[in-house]
Sequence to fold (244 residues):
Amino acid sequence: MSVFFLTGTDTDIGKTVVTTLLASFFKEHGLQFFPYKPIQSGAIEQDGKLIAPDPDMYRLVMGNQNEEDFNTYLLKKPSSPHLAAELEGVHFDFSLINEKINSLRDTYDGVIVEGAGGLYVPIKKDGYSMIDWIENLKVPTILVARAGLGTINHTVLSIEAMQKREIPIAGLILNHVYDEDETIEKDNVQMIQKLTNVPIIGTVPYCENIREVLIDKDKRKELHANWNMNILKEAVVNEPATII
Fold:
């Protein structure tokens, strides 16, 4: 019964893809981890009901689940959560989110909590940001970063910010968001590990149509074939028994 928080170095970094792949990866190892995105902006209204886009990808691995299990807060405006919440009159109750995490952890082998945007995305108007929440949760955190050009700076700064807060970092997953120079990408992996000494769980190869690949179980397995389960197992040794 474990909880991982998944964050990224930036928005549109592929967090939802990696969350879905993590659920698939755990499933291949006989573990049922539930993907949960507590705060989702950019929801779409259909038949008078808000529909979150990210759980559609989760379902490629999880199958049909209760809609309300995937999200707690749905916001229409595709913006930072603090702005969308202000415009839509929503107040985030983190005790409610924590109760949901604990409930899911009791039901499944574990939970993957997907954050919104990067570390300093504001959640509240007073400046309370994603990194503040992660610090309070005290659970192992997985950082998703681009594999290509420019990632070293973003990734090292993100890791230093988490280390300063003493946030437990489970490891890195580098996502090939774009089809770029393989020589640069391989060197990025080596240099990030050298500069940070943070373990790299694995990489996600570039896919022209990621959704089609995720639908196919065998192709999906190929995307996380190089991931290291031992790194994830080591990360949960000291996690809190209850999220408060």
Observations:
- The beta strands are 2-8, 33-36, 39-40, 44-46, 49-51, 73-74, 110-118, 141-146, 169-175, 200-204.
- The first strand starts at residue 2 and ends at 8.
